[in-house]
Amino acid sequence: QLPAGLYKKVLVILHDSILPYMNEPTLMIDFLTVAYGIGGAISLLALNGLFILIHQHNLEYPDFYKKLYSLLDPSIYHVKYRARFFHLADLFLSSSHLPAYLVAAFIKRLSRLALTAPPEALLMVIPFICNLFRRHPACKVLVHRPNGPEDLSEDPYIMEEKEPSESRALESSLWELQSLQNHYHPDVAQAAAVLNQSLSEIEDNISGLLELSACELFDREIKKKNADVPLEFEPVRGLFGKKNDIFAEHFTLD
Predict the structure, then answer these.
(1) 71 and 35 Cβ atoms separated by less than 8 Å
(2) Domain range spanning residue 170?
(3) What is the pLDDT of residue 107?
(4) 132 domain-assigned
(5) How confident is the model at residue 245 (pLDDT cuts 50, 70, 90)?
(6) Could you tell me if residue 174 is inside a domain?
(7) What is the pLDDT of residues 122-138, one digit of tens each?
């Protein structure tokens, strides 16, 4: 049993400062699998080491995607390791051989959690979800479901289900992203509106969005040039205002 702080310090550097210099990196399998099962930030940090063991040393982890799915909770959009997690999640979900129900479960869960996410996280996760649709066209039924439930309480998706195959995500619809089209931040609303059109085949590059912060978003907004905002629907005519104004009938400017 290691202190949580020590776990984090080791896992942060494990993938690039320890594993490459070990004669038998597979000796870290037990340590990483235990860390991956702890939950929270420790599980997120263990992903880097597991990724190396899975791709380079043929580690088999039967419940890997189930555990990855369980890591998706409201804090995932707020933790400081968010960029690292979504970079690796993008790699793990890049295979076109993944079953549609699994990818749909990830899409649906990310979309549901996006309802309470900050704008800087939404500008990253919406292109992330669009890329998943490009890789897995079978999941587009979530967007184009003509006979979806009229009442949101009838959504068949089971948010509390820990097993992706039992979540019934493929039977649901993506009303969460449609609601984000009315988001208070115009950039988020514009990003969510992309789903109203047919997606291009070229994936969005999300590498520049992974570490987008609220400060950067604020700086971007205040640097925008202010456009002339009309305050009246009808153009002003004369000194006293509108065309049929009573003052305009009795006063004129010479």
Answers:
(1) no
(2) 99-145+153-223
(3) 93
(4) yes
(5) low
(6) yes
(7) 999 999 999 999 888 88
Domain count, the chain: 1
User: Burial letters for 131-163: b for 16+ Cβ neighbours within 10 Å, e otherwise?
Assistant: bbbeebeebbbbbeeeebeeeeeebebeeeeee
Report the percent of the chain where pLDDT is more than 70.
87
* Inside any domain, residue 26: no
Does 12 reside within a domain? Answer: no
Specify the range with the lowest mean pLDDT, choosing from 76-85, 148-157, 235-244. 235-244
pLDDT tens, residue by residue, 52-73: 888 788 777 777 888 888 888 8
